[in-house]
Design brief:
556 residues, alpha/beta, Aspartate Aminotransferase, domain 1, Aspartate Aminotransferase, domain 2, 3 domains, four-stranded antiparallel β-sheet, 15% strand
């Protein structure tokens, strides 16, 4: 796309015009969810305004309109993934529910002791935990496909790991961390040769590459609408007719029954057999508009602009010596995961957020993969066709500035000698005074990062499971002591500078107080006066509250 064409294309997405912290939004978290074009938003709105009614069973005009649109969307998905029949398209809440449906309905009834479930080490938790539960209940065994140096499933190990004991092989088409296309055809061919079924997690692939389930010849394929410009709360389970017909029902209730009496119940035919209760009608109908949008612009193909973004961002990241990509070679889609020497991922993400840049950090619901890399997590940048080269340049320049300059050493709070120790009244008042003067979130964020520099390092002996703060997004520890006069003292630490800054703020409120004083302290008003909670991400805000909770539970 030319700059003019790209600008026109971006105009389809209302949210991209928003500002974050007074700066133009740069949305690089598309692997988590994509933004929605106006056509999708308007489609959902139109359903509620023009023909809001339940589907299938009513005999009035509005229900007929809703039912026709609802089933037309099913047929559109069928065509999009080249399924043989529309009844092979089952509506779910998302990829996660689709996998759980197969695990519970197929897995619980087809696996027994000694059977093998094959997963890859790079699977999302949603494609691991349901199978662990099934394995525990049936006695089945989980086998794991390793990755090669490029981050793809190691093709040389496929025949070794997928043995004649395998009954189902579950693998992501593209990992949500690595961004590379796995050798799915080889995996499916090997599975079929030993009589095993296959489930392919297409959550990252479905909006980026063409998918033909008949050509793949997989037994199940799952994905979510919200990762392909559609609404949240809508997912798809594709299954071969023979498999779906043989599977028992997953949930029971309205729509999935033919008849009910106290002498017995008969269940409905496909696809309704697996669609109990009132579905997300508005979301399903709006999903149809998302598929139309993808088809109109060819977004699920290797179009020039998307490849340009992938190549350019990859090349620019390689120029930063501190940046270490998790695997070798360029990804197949514009999704990049990396760590940065001597910088905590949470601190980098927080600094980028102040600049209006949205990235994702953490284990990305792929903790076994992170463990294989000996990492607690990483930074993930994921782009979409509405992103621009200029945004990549802004991101790289901002990141370079963060790495070169770090936090500004000036500031009232940074001079620790002004306060005797963390938790003195002077420090609490000083923090409140400084944060009240810092009107913008940019300024408040700067002060938090400066506070992170004054927290003394906790000894390794104290950083253990017993002192670990549960619920904090980065590893953080809290040690407690109690004097003979029932005064509590706390020391704390985290690997992330921003968490250390938040720990200082909390300790300033609670340190060197009695249990009664700690319990009665109005922490909500304290945080409100500081202007913290409304600016912190939900996970970081929850982490802050987890620190408070551990302190209060400890003194009680």
């Amino acid at each position: 796309m030319s700059p003019v064409e790209l600008e026109n294309f971006r105009a389809f997405f209302p949210l991209l015009a928003e500002k974050v912290n007074g700066k133009a939004l740069v949305y690089f978290d598309n692997g988590a969810t994509t933004q929605k074009p106006a056509a999708v938003i308007n489609s959902e709105k139109q359903y509620y305004q023009k023909y809001n009614a339940n589907v299938h069973r009513a005999a009035h005009h509005l229900s007929a309109l809703a039912t026709n649109a609802f089933e037309a969307s099913r047929m559109k998905v069928q065509q999009y993934i080249h399924a043989q029949f529309s009844h092979e398209i089952i509506w779910t809440k998302g990829t996660t529910e689709s996998i759980n449906l197969v695990a519970q309905s197929w897995g619980m009834n087809n696996l027994s002791s000694g059977d093998e479930i094959v997963l890859s080490v790079a699977e999302h938790h949603a494609n691991i935990v349901p199978w662990q539960i099934v394995a525990e209940k049936t006695g089945a065994i989980i086998k794991v496909l390793p990755l090669d140096e490029t981050g793809r499933v190691d093709a040389s190990q496929i025949d070794v790991i997928i043995s004649d004991k395998a009954k189902i092989v579950c693998c992501s088409h593209i990992s949500n961390v690595i961004g590379k296309i796995n050798p799915i055809e080889k995996i499916i061919t090997r599975a079929k040769s030993v009589g095993a079924k296959t489930l392919i997690d297409g959550a990252q692939a479905i909006a980026n590459i063409p998918v033909d389930v008949q050509q793949l010849d997989c037994d199940f394929y799952v994905f979510s609408a919200h990762k392909m410009y559609g609404p949240t709360g809508v997912g798809v389970l594709y299954g071969k007719t023979s498999e779906l017909e043989s599977m028992p029902v997953y949930q029971t209730g309205g729509e999935m029954i033919k008849s009910v009496s106290f002498s017995g119940t008969t269940f409905n035919d496909l696809p309704f057999k697996f669609e109990a209760g009132t579905p997300n009608i508005a979301g399903v109908i709006a999903f149809s508009a998302a598929i139309d949008f993808i088809n109109e612009f060819g977004l699920n193909r290797h179009e020039y602009h998307k490849q340009l973004l992938t190549n350019y961002c990859y090349e620019q990241l390689l120029l930063l010596d501190e940046v270490k990509l998790l695997v070798t070679d360029k990804p197949d889609i514009p999704l990049f995961s990396f760590v940065i020497d001597e910088h905590h991922q949470q601190d980098i993400a927080s600094d980028l957020d102040v600049a209006g840049i949205a990235v994702r950090v953490g284990h990305h619901c792929a903790m076994p993969l992170m463990e294989s890399f000996s990492l607690p997590g990483c930074i993930r940048v994921s782009l979409a066709p509405y992103n621009s080269i200029a945004e990549v340049d802004y991101f790289i320049n901002t990141l370079t500035g963060i790495l070169q300059n770090g936090a500004d050493e000036a500031g009232i709070i940074s001079n620790k000698s002004e306060y005797e120790e963390i938790g003195s009244e002077d420090e609490a008042n000083g923090i409140l005074d400084t944060f009240c003067r810092a009107k913008s979130w940019d300024a408040k964020h700067r002060e938090i990062m400066l506070l992170g520099k004054v927290l003394p390092r906790m000894s390794k002996e104290l950083r253990c499971d017993e002192t670990l703060i549960s619920g904090c997004e980065s590893a953080a520890w809290l040690s407690i002591s109690r004097s003979s006069t029932d005064i509590f003292s706390f020391s704390a630490y985290s690997d992330a500078k921003i968490i250390r800054g938040l720990l200082v703020i909390v300790l300033a409120a609670f340190n060197h107080k009695t249990a009664q004083q700690i319990t009665e302290f109005d922490i909500d008003t304290y945080f409100k006066e500081l202007g913290l909670i409304q600016h912190l991400s939900p996970s970081r805000g929850n982490g802050l509250l987890a620190i408070v909770k551990k302190i209060r539970q400890s003194v009680l």
